[in-house]
Every structure is written in structure tokens, then in C-alpha cells.
Amino acid sequence: MNPEAQDRSGASGLRYSLEVPSLEDLVDVFRIALEANFRNVAVRIVDCPDLTEPPYGMAAKGSWRTYCCVHVGSCLSNWSSLLTTFIFVLEGISKSTKISDVGGVRYLTPLPQLDHKYDLQTIAKESELSPPYFIMGAGCGPYQDVGCNCELMANVAVSSAGVVKNESRIAKLDKDGKCQIERLQTTNLAILGNFFLSAGEPGKVVEIRAEGRTGSENFVSILRQAVRARYQEKPVGIGGVFLVEKGSLNIHVMPDFSKAPLETEGTVDQWLKYFTQPAPMVFMSVFVSEDPGWDLRCEHTHGYGVPDAEGSSQNRGGHYHYGPPNLCVSRVHVETRYHFIR
């Protein structure tokens, strides 16, 4: 256990304060790793742009500062450590930013435990985050509202007056087994989720542009493994959004809950429905470089097709696996400070 851990009886867990990478250090970490896996790479420190504008369509504008991680599952708890921003956040609010690891795959396999239901606004409250705030990330959608199992792309901002701006979407299978994207009106979810919650403020971020993948790893894994190699046993959390402008992507969408036990990786893989979907697509990603022994999901990325003028994602979206050799990722932004919760 971290020697700086302290009891937080009113907040359902422990808080940890850990070392925080500087933006300059992260520029080097990401640049070296990406240059080994992409033909063209540019990494620099910039002001975070307005990510409510196209092509991102986020519920909030950009840039956050301090990070935490909250885990909600069989027990609700908090832990505080260093984390890092890997693109966009709500503009003009306080410093607190949190990562939330909710539920877990153990509630999905071998058979689903459908009593595990959550709400993003409740998670924010339990994370000691008051409006205004912003939440984005990946998880299982609210079967209790949608009527079936589905993938969640969470993208929600709550104003200081409590007004909810919900740009979230879900991906599900239609009766013919095709991918279907729907706008989500609720802030509910189920089973599991990995989210970035921010009450941040405008600031500098690290901008990443990469084109022409030459390595075998996917974009998110390249970044996570690079951070893990640099900081080793010190967990660094990163969350944010990236835009894929060119190529096609390998995506899966979960079918409805399996009635047969999913007891191995092979049976899970056979159960999932895979698609190859064309860019442009925007993805929400949350990852932790090193699991400090808390059974975290270290990497989770969902996304959908860049909305057209009518707001449609053309039924493209789901859980991200990897992109093709001509993958072009642009305008990724990263910033860092301290704090981690579980």
C-alpha cells in the first residue's frame, strides 16, 4: 500500500498522491514510441482547442488539470494518484479531474450479473465532483433503458445549474446482426465502464499527430506501453479523445447477453461481433499504465463515426481494437497533474 495512503471515511476509500509527469517529459515519451510505429509523427505542447466544435462534437470544450480514479463495483471506493490528460475537457471550471473504473468484466462473464447498474451523475457525486463537470469514456450501455446489451460511448456535460448536455451514443446489434448507433438520453449504464470526469480549467496540452502505422500495436496500446515503460510501477492514468481521419478500423459490438457461460477468451471472442468500419471516427479512450493490484481495466476505448450535418454517425461505432497500416490519427491532446482514487 502507498505510504501516503490516508483513510477517507466520508469518501468510501483511500486517497493516494503520486509523482506526476511533466508535459515536456510526456512529449518525449510519446514521440519516441510513435516514431517507432508511424511514418509521420508530430508531438508538441499547445493550448487545448474547443472540442465541442466539429469534427469532435464533445459535450464540453477542453483542458483539465488534476486527476483521480474512482472504482464502483461490489463496493464503492476512491483512490487518488497521478493522472494525465490525453485530450479535451470542460473549460473554465475548477482543478479536479477523476478517472472512474466502474464495475468490471467479472460482472459480464462467465454469466452477466444484471444487478450491477450505475449512473454517471451518481458516479460524479461519489467522486466528490460537483457541477459543472464533464464525463467521457467507454462502458456497457444501459440495457435497462435500451432493452438489450450494448456498447456505451459516454459524452456528458452537466452545467452549474444542473442542466445535462448529453452527446452520448450506444452501439448495438439490430435484428440482422448489423451495427446500429443511437443517441442516448439517459446517464445510466450497467456492468462496467471506464470514464474521465473533469471539473478542469483551460491550459496547455500535448498535441499528437500520427500518420502511416508501421508497427503491429494499436494507437492506444502504443501510448500506454510507452508510459508504462517510462514510469514502470508508478501508475499513470490517461483519458481523452482521438480522431482517426483516414483508413478503416477493427471494431466490435457486443450482442445481447450470452445465456451460455463465457468461460474463456476464445468463447468471448466468438460471442463478440466484429466489423471493419471506415474513418473518419472519433474515439473516447481511458487507460492506466500499470494496475497497482486493484483489478483495473488498463485500457478501454470506444468511438463512433464523426457525425454528419444531421448528427448521424452512419451506424458506425463500438469498441476499438486497431487500425490499418494507412491509419491517420490527428489532434490528440495530453496534459498532466496529480491524483488517483479507487
UniProtKB/TrEMBL annotation:
Matching InterPro entries: C11orf54_DUF1907 (IPR015021)
Keywords: Hydrolase, Metal-binding, Nucleus, Zinc
Pfam families associated with the record: DUF1907 (PF08925)
Segments forming domain DUF1907: 29-332
Gene Ontology CC, one term: nucleus
Subcellular location as annotated: Nucleus
GO MF annotation terms: hydrolase activity, acting on ester bonds; zinc ion binding
Principal cellular location given in the protein's record: nucleus
Keyword field contains Iron-sulfur: no
Subunit (UniProt): Monomer.
Protein name stated in the entry: DUF1907 domain-containing protein
